[in-house]
Amino acid sequence: MPAEVDDAEILSKFREEKTRNEAFNMLLKKYQQKIYWHIRRMVIDHDDADDLVQDVFIKIWKNLPGFRSDAQLYTWMYRIATNESITFLNKKKKQNNVSMDDVAYDLSDTLADSAYFNGDQAQRKLQEALITLPEKQRLVFNMKYFDDMKYEEISDVLGTSVGALKASFHLAVKKIETYLLSKD
Amino acid sequence: MFYLYNDMKSDIENRDWINGYASLKQISPANPFTVPAGYFNDLEDRIVSYKNLREKYNGTGDGFTVPAGYFDELTGNIEGRITVEDAVNTDNLGLTVPEGYFDELDSRIMGRVRIQEALDSAQPFSVPAGYFEQLNKNILDKTVNLDKAGRSGIVRKLYATRAFKYATAACFALIIGGGILILQLTSPQYVHTHSFLHKELSNVPVDEIKSYLQLNVDPGDTQQTVTAEGATVKEDNLKKALQDYVDSVQ
Asked: Which of A108, A118, A173, B34 has the fewest CB atoms below 10 angstroms from its CB?
């Protein structure tokens, strides 16, 4: 398995015009799946995630010249993906003129009808429980539980303090457990 | 809450925290979501293509344009249309129809249709065979083709032209002037002054006329001359008489 390319090398190549495209390809290879799954867990539907992941990388391409190296590259990309996902969900809510509860109901339907979900009953319940959470709380849980990110990294993505993130995660877990027990 | 938070603090950085949540612990941490076969194999190419496309048409959109100020006026135009639509969309604009109008309308229309069909189908008159084919030629033969010189006259109303009016006025002037002239020429004064006798005698000195009259005309003749003033003078006889006199004097 080839070693992952260093972010610094990617950024260095990107700053040179003749190697910019090569750098972008390297970036894609390294992060496309991570970004995709991050989005997918939020929007549930594969086609929606597909549209969003492309939009996100276009934004990354446009804004990478202005990226300051004081932050981690992938947390910066995660932030873009997070904002795009939240924007998408908010837009869905406005288009259908429904409350967030109705959007959660809609996502549950999508999950139930999805051809690209092969989890068992327990995993399906977990996803249903996650859909009931507020968006940011769901993001915290996803990044912590599924991506194994550190709280400092999640703090960079969401712009929330580590302490608040820990509390948010704790609350999310309690809610999920309550949901799972209620469905037994 | 705070106590519980502190207890969890050290566990939360690894996955030991999940031991406190039996129901969550039972759930496999494996990713349950899937993607279409080969999705990630071509995702990179698709993203690159999309990026190149966006770069090529960077902010230029689809090439379509709108007139200057279009969007500035659009809101007002739409609101105006809505206002008009609302006004027009009132119940028939206040217009009404007689009671039962629409109930009878279709039968009335059908009645008219039947009448029209009857009129169209019942054509009692007929014409000789080929009549209309020949009609056009017959008319032309009697009109346009009648004049072989191909005179193409333009019919104008004579009395409507200005020239005719002037001509009419001139004719009247001539008639009146001619009439006056004729009256003058036939007046006794004119006849007398333009007669042969007058012309001849005007050249004769007055003393000679007096002496002639005294010598050759007796008072009786003079009276006859005065009373016969209106009689016509035979010029030939008079000429002969004067000539005889002149010859006798010479």
From this structure: A118
CATH number 1.10.10.10 given to A1-99 = no
| Boundaries of every domain in chain A | 1-99, 118-184
Structure tokens at A139: 């993001």
Residue listed under structure tokens 């048409």: B57
pLDDT tens track of chain B, all 250 residues? 333 444 444 444 567 777 877 778 888 888 889 999 999 998 998 898 888 877 776 655 565 667 777 777 777 777 777 677 667 665 555 566 677 777 777 777 877 777 777 776 655 566 677 777 777 777 777 766 765 555 555 666 666 678 888 889 999 999 999 988 888 887 777 776 666 666 777 777 778 777 767 666 555 555 555 555 556 667 788 788 778 767 766 5
Residue of A125, A130, A170 to mutate for B, most B C-beta atoms under 10 A? A170
The domain limits of chain B are: 187-249
A5, burial (CB in 10 Å: exposed 0-12, middle 13-18, buried 19+) = middle
A25 to chain B, any CB pair closer than 8 A? The answer is yes
Does B34 sit within 8 Å of A177, measured CB to CB?
no
B25 vs A: CB within 8 A = no
Q: Under a CB-based contact definition with an 8 Å cutoff, are residues B179 and B171 in contact?
A: no
ipTM of the complex: 0.72
A34: nearest Cα among A140, A147, A126:
A147
Please, what is the end-to-end C-alpha distance for chain B in angstroms? 185
Positive or negative, the Cα torsion across B188, B189, B193, B197? positive
Confidence (pTM): 0.52
Cross-strand bridge partners of residue A83:
none
Q: Which residues contact B68 (CB under 8 A, 6 or more apart)?
A: none
Which option is the CATH number for A118-184: 3.80.30.20, 1.25.40.10, 1.20.1250.20, 1.10.10.10? 1.10.10.10
